[in-house]
Every structure is written in structure tokens, then in C-alpha cells.
């Protein structure tokens, strides 16, 4: 461990890094194979200053490989990993060290040192930088205050709850004032209530410190709670990305739809099981609306514009990033002309609408 502070090991971001629309991280066509497996198959992605970007994917999608490329533990076969304007994929180990410290990490299992007190854990990155003890302790106190754990400074990790351990992890990750906080499944080992409080803390720190956060997860609920933008990774490729509310409102890829499965309203199982794909007396429509149109009286307009009855079978309105995102299931008489009229009306108003099947009775 290098305890001596030296100019060589201190990294100062280049002076031109303060461009208005600064990207903290830029991945360009990143590729990494393991034998026949393309763990990363041309990933391009930017993390903008001050945003929370969530990367979501199933197990085996390439998330860990991406993280390892980002913190320099893995060399990509090709492509660029640009952190604050410098391509770390090309740097030698010695040059990489100070750049690595520009990324603070938090982990699923916290990775605290059990033999060290909370404040010493938090101050560890500063010790590695060779900072004085007084400076380390002052910074640790400041950070423990930030995460609401001042009274635990002298405690050992074993005496802390999971949520408290993660707060220490967050404080430690921020000690060296990183450009990016990288969260690797940081709430996956926590219960739902603790998860909420840790995510709220991350959101709060993001806003107060304008801290850029890259959050890796397999849980859409985590993305929905705090991310500004989301990128979906599957088989080493980014298959979809955009503002969280718009991806929630209009998921394009099968994998995104599947990851959203538990969050977006679905037809109740007993109705879904009775759906037939051949025409029956009642057509079941799935109608998805979001943003401005979800604030309008769409159903009453439908009732007054298109003659004929409809019934609401199922549905829900959610709010994602303060935007309404709604999915409704309507039952309408299955007359082909009528179905077309209803679909035309809904699409004309900006909704997404499709017939998902037919049912033979009204229960
Ligand atoms: P995730 O973190 O999303 O679960 P990974 O990045 O760990 O995905 O893995 C992506 C793919 O690359 C998987 O098919 C995995 O088996 C493969 N892989 C990752 N690391 C290695 C390795 N060191 N050797 C061989 N295959 C690997």
C-alpha cells in the first residue's frame, strides 16, 4: 500500500474536462470475448455528469465484464473506456492506479474490513492516497455525517445492520471525491425497506453533490426508484436505452418487456388463460399511454367519439420520474369495424393500442 502522497499518483482531471455537456464516462464499441462467448459485443454508452444511469440485464448479460473494463481490472479486446477524457483501456498498471480512484465503488456484500472501525474503513482510500491522519479523520467524520452514521464512527462492521454497512460503503466510496460512483448490485442483499432507504440516500447525494452515479442491477424496481436514464444489456449488447419513464412507457425489446413484467400491469392470470386468438364476442385491447396523453380524459373522449360500449377489465397508472405511465385493458364488442374505429381513435390520440385476444363472456 502506498502511504506516501506523491504528485505522480494524484490524478488531476484535464483542464478541458469542464465542457458544458461533459461525459464522465464514455464507452465506445467495447468488445470482450471469452472463447466462444462475446461477453461484451460492441457496447457504446455514455454517463453524463450529474446523472444516475442504470444498466440492467439478466445474469450472464455482461454486466460484470463491463464493470471490470470500467475499473481497469479487465482489458477489452477492442474499443475505448474513456474516463474523464482519458482512455483507460490503453493505460499501463502504473498510470491506471490514480485513474481508478476517480471511480468509487459500492458492492452487494459491502466489502468492509472487519478488523477496522467504521471511520477507518471510510478513511481507507485517503490512507492509500497518503493523506494525513487529521485530514482522513476530518473527511471520515464529514462523510459519516452525510450518510447519517456519525455515532458509529468507532464501531466495527460486525455490529452494524446491512443497511448501515452499505452506508459505510457509500461513505468510503466517496472519500477520495470520485468523479463517478459505481454501484454494483448494491441493494441486492438488502430487504425492501432498507433498499428503499439506501436508494433514497443515493438519490439525495446525487442531488446535493451533483454526483454522477452508474448503477448496475438486475432489478427494474431499482432503476425505477432512482435512475434518470436506463440502458438494457443483453448478450453483451445494449439493446435499448433512454429516459426511464419513456422506456417504461414504451419498451421496445423483448428482454426489456420481460424485465418490466412484474412492474407493468398485466392481465390477471385467470383472464389471460381464457384469452383466445381466434375471434370471440369480445376483443381485449391493451392500451398504453404515458406523459401528456395520460393526463387527458382519454376514456371519456373515447365514449363520446366512438359509438358502442367498452368496459375496463384491468389496468393501472404509475408515476415514473413524475410522469404518468398507464396500461389499461379494455373489453369491446369484437365487430371488426368497431375494433378498427376504437384502435384508430386511440392511436390518433397518441396511445399504443393492440388487440391481445378475445374472450367469450363477460366475467
Ligand atoms: P453478468 O455480470 O451480467 O452476469 P458477466 O459479465 O459475468 O455477466 O458474463 C457475461 C458472459 O461472459 C457470460 O456468458 C459469462 O459466462 C462469460 N464470462 C464472463 N467472465 C468470464 C471468464 N472469465 N471466463 C469465461 N467466461 C466468462
Outline the structure in words:
- By secondary structure, the chain is α/β, with parallel strands linked by helices.
- Among the domains are: 23-102 and 178-259, Rossmann fold (3-Layer(aba) Sandwich); 269-359, Alpha-Beta Plaits (2-Layer Sandwich), CATH 3.30.70.260.
- Helix content is 33%, strand content 29%.
- The strands form 3 sheets. It has a 6-stranded mixed sheet, sandwiched between helices.
- Helix 3 packs across helix 4, helix 3 (118-128) packs parallel to helix 5 and helix 4 crosses helix 5.
- The longest helix is centred in the middle third of the chain and has 18 residues, at 192-209.
- Residues 1-11 have low confidence and may be disordered.
- The chain binds adenosine-5'-diphosphate.
- Adenosine-5'-diphosphate (ADP) binds next to strand 2 and helix 1.
Number of strand segments: 14
The unique ligands bound to this protein are: adenosine-5'-diphosphate
**Beta-strand content estimate:** 25-35%
End-to-end distance, in Å?
70 Å
CATH fold description of the domain at 23-102 and 178-259: Rossmann fold
In CATH terms, what is the architecture of the domain at 23-102 and 178-259?
3-Layer(aba) Sandwich
Query: Which secondary-structure class do the elements indicate?
Result: alpha/beta
Low-confidence stretches: 1-11
Instruction: Tell me the name of the CATH class of the domain at 23-102 and 178-259.
Output: Alpha Beta
Compute the average pLDDT. 91
Shape: elongated
Largest β sheet strand count, sense and barrel closure: 6 strands, mixed
Helix content: 25-40%
Rg over CA atoms: 25 Å
Quaternary structure annotation: single chain
CATH superfamily of the domain at 23-102 and 178-259: P-loop containing nucleotide triphosphate hydrolases
The spatial strand order of the largest sheet comes to: 6-7-8-3-9-10
SSE order: EEEHEEHEHHHEHEHEEHHHEHEEHE
Query: Helical segment tally?
Result: 12
Amino acid at each position: 500500500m502506498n502511504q506516501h502522497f506523491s504528485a505522480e499518483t494524484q490524478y488531476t482531471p484535464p483542464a478541458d474536462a469542464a465542457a458544458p455537456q461533459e461525459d464522465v464516462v464514455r464507452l465506445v464499441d467495447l468488445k470482450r470475448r471469452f472463447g466462444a462467448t462475446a461477453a461484451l459485443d460492441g457496447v457504446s454508452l455514455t454517463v453524463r455528469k450529474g446523472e444516475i444511469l442504470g444498466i440492467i440485464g439478466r445474469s450472464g448479460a455482461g454486466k460484470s465484464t463491463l464493470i471490470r473494463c470500467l475499473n481497469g481490472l479487465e482489458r477489452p479486446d477492442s474499443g475505448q473506456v474513456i474516463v474523464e477524457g482519458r482512455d483507460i483501456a490503453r493505460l499501463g498498471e502504473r498510470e491506471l492506479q490514480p485513474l481508478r480512484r476517480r471511480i468509487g465503488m459500492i458492492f452487494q456484500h459491502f466489502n468492509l474490513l472487519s478488523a477496522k472501525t467504521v471511520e477507518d474503513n471510510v478513511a481507507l482510500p485517503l490512507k492509500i492516497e497518503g493523506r494525513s491522519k487529521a485530514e482522513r479523520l476530518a473527511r471520515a467524520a464529514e462523510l459519516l455525517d452525510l450518510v447519517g452514521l456519525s455515532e458509529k464512527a468507532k464501531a466495527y462492521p460486525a455490529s452494524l445492520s446491512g443497511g448501515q454497512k452499505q452506508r459505510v460503503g457509500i461513505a468510503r466510496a466517496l472519500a477520495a471525491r470520485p468523479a463517478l460512483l459505481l454501484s454494483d448490485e448494491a441493494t441486492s442483499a438488502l430487504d425492501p425497506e432498507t433498499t428503499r432507504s439506501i436508494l433514497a440516500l443515493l438519490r439525495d447525494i446525487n442531488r446535493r453533490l451533483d454526483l454522477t452515479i452508474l448503477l448496475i442491477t438486475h432489478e427494474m424496481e431499482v432503476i425505477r426508484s432512482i435512475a434518470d436514464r436506463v440502458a438494457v444489456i443483453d448478450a453483451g449488447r445494449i439493446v435499448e436505452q433512454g429516459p426511464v419513464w419513456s422506456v417504461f412507457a414504451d419498451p421496445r425489446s423483448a428482454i426489456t418487456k420481460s424485465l418490466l413484467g412484474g412492474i407493468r400491469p398485466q392481465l390477471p392470470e385467470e383472464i389471460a388463460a381464457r384469452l383466445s386468438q381466434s375471434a370471440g364476442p369480445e376483443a381485449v385491447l391493451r392500451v398504453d399511454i404515458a406523459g401528456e396523453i395520460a393526463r387527458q380524459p382519454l376514456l371519456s373522449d373515447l365514449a363520446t367519439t366512438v359509438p358502442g360500449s367498452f368496459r375496463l377489465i384491468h389496468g393501472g397508472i404509475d408515476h415514473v420520474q413524475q410522469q404518468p405511465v398507464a396500461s389499461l385493458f379494455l373489453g369491446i364488442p369484437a365487430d371488426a369495424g368497431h375494433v378498427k374505429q376504437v384502435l384508430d381513435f386511440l392511436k390518433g390520440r397518441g396511445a399504443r393500442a393492440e388487440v391481445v385476444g378475445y374472450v367469450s363472456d363477460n366475467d
